[in-house]
Amino acid sequence: MRYTGLSGKTYELSSTSCSSGGEGTIYDITGEWNKCAKIYHQGIRSKELEEKLKVMVSNPPNQSVLSQIAWPLDIVYSNGNGFVGFVMPKIEVSGELTPVYEYPAATYKDLTFEQKLIIAQNICAVIDAVHKAGFVFGDFNPCNIGIDMNTGHVAFWDTDSYHIKDKKTGKTYRCKMCLDGYVAPEIISKCRQINPRTGKKYTYEDAPLETFTQESDNFALAIHIFRLIMNGYTPFGGIIANSNESISTRSPGVGSVAVEKDMYCFKPGYIHMSKAVADKNTLPTEIAKLFDRAFIDGRIDPKQRPTAREWHNALEHFINNLQQCKVNPTHQYMKGLHTCPWCEIDKKFNNNIQAAVSKQQSIPGIAPTPGQVVALTNRPVSINAAQQVKNKKNTLRAEVVVLIVCVASVLLFYFADSARWRKKTQPELGYGISDTVQAWNPYTKINFTGSLNNTADKDEYTVTLKSDYHPSYGNREYKVKFEVVTSNSDGVRIKISNKDGQSTSFKSNDGDTYDNSHTVILTAGKTYYIAIYSNSGEVDYYLGMECD
């Protein structure tokens, strides 16, 4: 396949694709190992999209980050079909951001707390460069962020969905989607209003501008940093302390609901519900103040939210003032604390969940180096985590190595669509996941973990069993095994229903055991809604799903 760029340059694309998604197909470019091309499906191509890409091609961010962001480099045309797609850097990484948020760790079990802070810094470096170029991300989806586990560098995909404003004409090319839970409160509020033209609520596509801004990016950035610090949990898991209301009434909800209800867990008068969130006083004062600016001051005035550069500098100070846990080599915490807060959290979680101990596997470690003054830079890595711990100044050598407590070892989800281009999100493990549609490969295992407070409380998940994993499968039925582990003997109740209203239910505790397994017949291509209820009182749970 041969296409022509804006300047007349010819691109010869490989005959086989690297990946394919809902918008287009990715191809390698012959003779250019470091580039690839995205060819849009026929129905996606439009004059507006072509114009948007031209603006991006003409105004790239700093060259230092182009190896980490799939920014449009050229637009490609077909002699017969006109505009068809664009050329971008080919970015290959070994990991994704979403599984970093798993608690207990299932995919990256040896990733240290210090490494998570470094990942946060490297995200800040890319955000800073894109903002300096005058652009806005909009959809800050963790599934669009990759991580090179050998270098600690991050990679950003799906840049063609960014919120782009043409500085010459003033025209805005909108971001038309944003993952629930990362939308700034001012945008949520705007989209609650009625569009007088349609009589319906505004959407990201028709809400009065400005919608997405650098300030709304800063809101989402603060959420990512909070999750990297706090075992993958969001900052919006608080409840009002000393309230006469029931716990279920005070429950923050999830996603944009929790943001809209202003359930920031460190807000004065609030307490956090998530057991894996450390106390605010375990953080450096500088970091705690930045979170308050992002979620308290920034709610009133979005310009008060910390920038990527401010976060980068504060994280640098945090990294330089860590001490090594004497028990767990993956734990580092603020100097001055007498006990490791992460060990305390692991202990509490282990007491609540009867979990198996999984075997650790080593991954390369990430080691800090001094950043540059002018531009934010990425931190490179050392050879391995053990060497990082050994070389870290003013830290104690780990004396005892303990196994990480985890609910279950699970494989990372695999999709027929490449991770680089998929739009659907993976279920994000931890408290309060809901309304997440997952195209699930039937031959891998997925899991969910969460906490329920009483019988009036529930967690909801949405899962779609892929029908196109292989063309011959069609609407094949699968025996799906549900494995449930709970923290108390009363367990939980699981209800599985489809769009047609058909449902099946089972309890986790058939007999006197804390855990059990159940097999349910599910049909490929259908979407199922999974609700988890507490049978009695407060309970932590693990739910695993795989084909029997």
- Give a short account of the largest sheet: 6 strands, antiparallel
Number of domains: 3
Q: Which strand-content bin applies to the residues?
A: 15-25%
Provide the spatial order of strands within the biggest beta sheet. 1-2-3-4-6-5
Give a quick set of tags describing it.
single chain; 548 residues; alpha+beta; Phosphorylase Kinase, domain 1; Transferase(Phosphotransferase), domain 1; Jelly Rolls; 3 domains; 6-stranded antiparallel sheet; 5-stranded mixed sheet; 24 strands
Describe this structure in words.
- With 548 residues, the chain is an alpha+beta fold.
- It folds into three domains: 2-89, Phosphorylase Kinase, domain 1 (2-Layer Sandwich); 95-391, Transferase(Phosphotransferase), domain 1; 437-547, Jelly Rolls (Sandwich).
- The protein is 20% helix and 24% strand.
- Strands 1-2-3-4-6-5 form a six-stranded antiparallel beta sheet, with helices on one face. A five-stranded mixed beta sheet has the order 16-18-23-20-21, with no helix packed on it. A four-stranded antiparallel beta sheet has the order 17-24-19-22, with no helix packed on it.
- The longest helix is centred in the first third of the chain and has 20 residues, at 113-132.
- The two termini are 43 Å apart.
- Mean pLDDT is 78; it is low at 354-375, 380-443 and 468-474.
